[in-house]
Amino acid sequence: MDKVTIKANGISVTLDLTVGHIADMTVESDGRQLKPLHRAPWVDAGEALSPDLPEGTVRLSGDFLCAPFSASDIEAAPLHGWPANSAWDVTASEATSDGWRAVFRLRRTVMGATVDKIFTLRNSHPFLYQEHVFSGGSGAVSAAHHPMAAMRDGGRLAFSPKRFAGTLDAPLEPDPARGRFKLSYPARSTDLTRFPATGGGTLDLTDYRMEDEREDFITLVEADHDGPGWTALARRAEQDLVLVLKNPAELPVTMLWFSNGGRDYAPWSSRHRGVLGIEDGRAAIGHAASIDDNWLKREGVATAFTLGGEVSFRHVIGALPQANGEPPRDIGTASGHMRLTGADGSTRDVRFDSDFLRIGQPG
């Protein structure tokens, strides 16, 4: 069994057990089927790919756990660690009083820790509730979710309050013979609508434009506030709203990966277009950097989890139909619902487990 699908009223999620990636997520709403998550074009094409590619790239889809995030330069493993590149087993999968709950366990360990992935679906909730639990082990490891959404005609973004956005010392694709980028490296801005661009000027991080062919990576640091951390992506052609939520105390950064035809080499081959990674994490770039001194730590931002005992963090992905192409200006959660407030002050309530993210609860 390479895949397993779980369902509740109005939602289904399929996990690729070979690598722990979500192969499909479908939300049924207003007579439509919304598919908020991306699957790389080569995954189901039967192409002959290089044997040197990590399995996580070969099977790239949906969302997956990175532990560590980026380079595995402490404990030998492929890019983003064994949770993103190796097999998981189903240890429990059963109906609950209001939906479905499934537990998956990574066959390998991470720094000696056992890793469990827990999916919860609730009837008539357009959300996947996820938790990852590290049991035992020693040392420390960075971690992040890696949800990806794809757009046919771009979209607009909104975020919970951020302190600032910053790029790395160098772009992902510095060689013009292999790819291209649009942002300046390194750079920093407190205004997400005016981030320094390469060659001068600025770019609006809240506007995903298909004409901007690029491979860019940027980190957003959460500001101090009392609510959930969130990213909202209003996709134009898809006429929906993709929502990604976290507890900032657990995952203090949101890393955005703009992948829009910016890599010319296989398997990307300039065809990986309109993709946005919304990667909430507790990480710098690479395992060693995350547990050592780094630019985020110097800003007071945690970049790794200390292992031993039990360590867990939670995350939510959802989708709603929306035709106006504009994300909300605010999202609040309370009393079993989520309230989205539009730019014009209008509100919309949807069912949501407002206790799940443990906002404000002792760690």
What can you see in these coordinates?
- About 0% of the residues lie in helices and about 45% in strands.
- The protein has about 375 residues and is an all-beta fold.
- The strands form six sheets. The protein has a nine-stranded antiparallel sheet, with no helix packed on it.
- Strand 7 and strand 8 (about 115-120) form a beta hairpin.
- The longest helix is centred in the C-terminal third of the chain and has 5 residues, at about 285-290.
- The model has no long low-confidence stretch (mean pLDDT about 95).
Helix amount: under 10%
Average pLDDT metric: 97
Discrete helix count: 2
Q: Span between N and C termini? A: 37 Å
Biggest β-sheet, characterized? Answer: 9 strands, antiparallel
In short:
By secondary structure, this protein is mainly beta.
Please render the helix and strand layout as text:
Blueprint: E1 3-8, E2 11-16, E3 21-29, E4 32-34, H1 55-58, E5 65-66, E6 88-96, E7 99-106, E8 113-122, E9 127-136, E10 140-141, E11 143-145, E12 148-150, E13 155-159, E14 162-166, E15 188-189, E16 195-196, E17 202-203, E18 207-208, E19 214-222, E20 229-235, E21 240-246, E22 253-260, E23 275-282, H2 287-291, E24 305-306, E25 310-321, E26 330-334, E27 337-341, E28 347-351
Antiparallel strand pairs: 1-2, 2-3, 3-4, 5-11, 6-7, 7-8, 8-9, 9-25, 10-24, 11-23, 12-23, 13-18, 13-20, 14-15, 14-19, 16-17, 19-22, 20-21, 21-25, 22-23, 26-27, 27-28
Structural descriptors:
Beta-galactosidase, Chain A, domain 5, 363 residues, 2 helices, mainly beta, nine-stranded antiparallel β-sheet
